């Protein structure tokens, strides 16, 4: 995948295809590569947009779920997107929810959550290992998936680079703590837009009961479980994930 990263002001993003915007928000250890199959599939009929969330670029006070939701709001406002579909994985889903709760006037048409934080999540753990513990990072990265072989060397190297950087570790911990503090609950019942929940049946980070609780709290939601799948269905089972999402979006046309 070799898409052009566009820059406008302080925003860096990918924008591929034409049609209604489909905005993808990645998670805490996420990268553009997480969405490559999704971008390829949907760029034919949608304008697929992936803003690079400034996980490590905000000042420490703004390195929060709320700070990232403000960033997303400014980005969508700047681009003038209307009738957009928002999709978030892991922390990206949490950011999408906070953005929608703070901006009920927004013209977002639908929301898709997959392995979203916001209610409960098992993170990397309470403590971080000494820098240089590659094996520990490899095992933690494998926990993201049902099939540990999905944790390729390239992926483990990306995570290892982050946790090997002291400033980035401080910001990862700040965001993880913010996500726990900023847990959502009954206020989700005010979100009445159509929501598609796509969950890995074997997700150990945001287990299936988290998907069920989101389904209970979000009044206009539908829940789809994918078997033999972990925390990142769009990476692990892209074919099944794209079919569920396509069916959902097609019904909104």
From TrEMBL:
PANTHER family: HYDROLASE, PUTATIVE (AFU_ORTHOLOGUE AFUA_2G14860)-RELATED, MONOACYLGLYCEROL LIPASE
Name assigned to this protein: Pimeloyl-ACP methyl ester carboxylesterase
InterPro entries with a match to the protein in the record: AB_hydrolase_1, AB_hydrolase_fold, AB_hydrolase_sf
Residues annotated as domain AB hydrolase-1: 21-136
Domain of life of the native organism: Bacteria
Any one cellular-component term (Gene Ontology): membrane
Signal peptide (residue range): none
Matching Gene3D superfamilies: alpha/beta hydrolase (3.40.50.1820)
């Amino acid at each position: 995948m070799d898409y052009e990263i566009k820059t406008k002001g302080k925003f860096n993003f990918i924008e591929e295809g034409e049609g209604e915007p489909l905005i993808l928000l990645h998670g805490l250890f996420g990268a553009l590569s997480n969405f490559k199959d999704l971008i390829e599939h949907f760029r034919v009929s949608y304008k697929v947009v992936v803003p690079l969330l400034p996980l490590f670029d905000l000042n420490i006070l703004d390195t929060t779920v709320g700070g990232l939701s403000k960033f997303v709001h400014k980005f969508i406002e700047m681009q003038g997107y209307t009738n957009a579909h928002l999709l978030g994985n892991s922390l990206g889903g949490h950011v999408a929810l906070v953005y929608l709760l703070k901006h009920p006037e927004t013209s977002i048409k639908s929301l898709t959550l997959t392995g979203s934080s916001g209610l409960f999540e098992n993170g990397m753990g309470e403590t971080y290992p000494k820098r240089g513990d590659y094996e520990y990072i490899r095992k933690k990265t494998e926990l993201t998936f049902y099939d540990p072989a999905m944790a390729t060397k390239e992926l483990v190297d990306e995570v290892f680079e982050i946790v090997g950087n002291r400033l980035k570790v401080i910001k990862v911990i700040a965001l993880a703590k913010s996500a726990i503090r900023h847990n959502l609950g009954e206020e989700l019942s005010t979100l009445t837009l159509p929501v598609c929940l796509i969950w890995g049946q074997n997700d150990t980070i945001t287990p299936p009961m988290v998907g069920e609780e989101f389904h209970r709290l979000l009044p206009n939601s539908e829940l789809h479980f994918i078997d033999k799948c972990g925390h990142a269905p769009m990476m692990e089972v892209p074919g099944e994930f794209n079919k569920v999402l396509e069916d959902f979006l097609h019904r909104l046309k």
